[in-house]
Amino acid sequence: MRYLADLHAFFCPQTVAIVGASQKPGKIGNVLVKNMIACGYPGRIYPVNPKEEEIEGLRCYPNLSAIGENVDLVVVAVPANRVIAVAQECGLAGAKNLVVISAGFKEVGKEGLILEKELTRICRSYGMGLLGPNCVGMMDTHVPINASFSAVFPKQGNIAFISQSGAMLVAILDWSLTTGLGFSRIVSLGNKADLNEADFIADAANDPNTRVILCYIEDVTRGQQFLQVARAASRKKPVIILKSGASQAGAQAASSHTGALAGSDLAYETAFRQCGIIRARSMAELFDLAVAFAHQPVPKGNRVAVVTNAGGPGIVTTDSIEMSELTMARFSKETSQELRVNLPREAAIYNPVDVLGDADENRYRSALEKVLGDQSVDSAVVLVCPTAVTEPEQTARAIIETHRIYPNKPVFAAYMGGKTLAGGAKLLAEEGIPCFTFPEPAVRALSGMVRYARARELPEKEKELELGGIQPEPVKEILQKVRQEGRLTLLGSEASQVAGCYGIAVAPIVLATSPHEAAARAQEIGFPVVMKVASPQILHKTDIGGVKIGVETPQEVKKAFIEITENVQRFLPKVVIHGIEIQKMMPQGTELIIGMTRDVQFGPLIAFGLGGIYVNLLKDVSFRLAHGLTRQEIQQMLTETKAYTLLRGYRGEKPKDLGAIVEMIARTARLVLDFPEIGEMDINPVFAYPDGAFALDIKITIS
Questions:
Q1: CA-CA distance, 160 to 144, in Å (whole number)?
Q2: 51 burial level (CB within 10 Å; 0-12, 13-18, 19+)
Q3: CA dist., res. 14 & res. 123, Å (int)
Q4: H/E element holding 130?
Q5: What is the mean pLDDT of each run of 10 residues along the chain (703 residues)?
Q6: Which residue numbers delimit the ATP-grasp domain (predicted)?
């Protein structure tokens, strides 16, 4: 794994050189120089252009070596075919970091990719950090520095925004001017040839001027590095990500149940959840959450009070709350009594609190003070609808002043109107109280804050899975033998041996190549037995008569051996048969599936849920990444499925051995982490019993 970059000299450089600086207005090289001057950058700026002597009042240098001192940051804006030479010059001149604005790299095809790889190689050989290429640049409003060609330098604030899309970034910056939203840092990632989202998330997590970290990404460059960084960063500050596009999880998953269940975006969803990241589903939600975290305290719980001057909007808000991870607060008896005394007789005093359409600022103030003072209330949403007597500005001041009394409880507002309420909404926004036109976005933002609060409460570090009785050497030998035979899929008996080497309890299974051998092996295992054709080419053995269940005598075994062989030869005459597998027939248990599909970015993705023939029909499955998986997370996996209800004991059934299931999942995770060549694995079904659990059918494919 590549070490994270030290970005202090990147954001706080003493000196900045701009290679490709231009005297011509409108050229990117000219905009870069003007932006650096206009933002108030306190360090030394060195334009570099051999054709100019002065640019924007600054002395211009023919090359970096002519500057006469080491440069902390070099911003490059020259044609792509000249960037390699500039990078080499930067390395020789002792530059610490590069921002390559220039386009024409991997985004344009093979030739550009070759250029980009060479650029990355040069930067790493000299220990220079590289942002880009093909990026807008970066800014820090607190230094201040503006090493970008954006037309806008944002208002100073506490939100860091990291974007893979340059167009998205400049659009947001322009929009921010109309909303008054402030930023601490802005980073355009571009092609992410070297520095990536993980580097900037890690640095923002330690930046005293940043309170919340926003990201727009289309992919993750280094999955394991990202997981490590995101886990640590989200313990310190909210990390909110809008992820577009799709991962390649399940792209080669047609051959397994687990792969079929794993959607293209599932690995990212799972990774974000395990790391404590909040995932936004739209640009609007991304910045709604940003405003909420930037100005409001993190709620201590999910209990919400609603204060409204209209019944309908109160019901809409209640429905939205109940459909999210929030719940309507239940007031104490004292709070209800105080509301009854201070509000009109017709007012609703139970949550939601309806202060009626003729409510003035004092009625709002009184109601909000009472509910925020209640220990059973964690946060509040205040709704204001325009009536003939509504006082938008005065009510806004009442909300602001009341919130100051209870600063540890977040307050959101929905001013449900337009021009009439605009003045009040503006006052609230200026004071850091998120104000929306409708209640649903307020509820979504508050729900995101609660999800973050819960994630932050989880133990920072649980012991990694400690498992005894693991024998990796026999597994290596089995996988090597399979490769030597030119196969990618293990036989059932081989897969069972692999599982057994990692302590996974498997119903006894052996491979027989003749009727006589099959009968002898069946007697050793003990009757009754199940017999299955052994051929990696056959996915659905039952469909062609390749399975016999409940075989009880040696004679029946010999007969079944011949029948299975004939069935396969009749339906699939060209298929290679390796023999017939004989397996101990286990008593019926609760059928489960434990599986794995390997994501291109994040590695093994573990699945658990109801198994058997209904696995793809019911799709009752939960997922976790194997990397960093803990027993606590495995236990949480179980609770997320309907299978958990059956396992706990349903309609008189005895509870099943949850500990044995957790152990089997843990050992499966360890196996696929130790052997990255295992591309997919299905254990389906697993029979769970009151005492123990056994794997019956195991499928393993390798790459």
A1: 14
A2: exposed
A3: 20
A4: strand 129-131
A5: 71 97 96 98 97 96 94 97 97 95 95 96 96 97 98 96 94 88 96 96 97 94 91 94 67 44 75 93 93 96 97 96 95 96 95 96 97 98 94 97 98 95 95 96 96 82 75 97 94 96 96 96 95 88 93 96 95 93 95 93 94 75 92 93 90 91 97 96 95 95 93
A6: 496-532
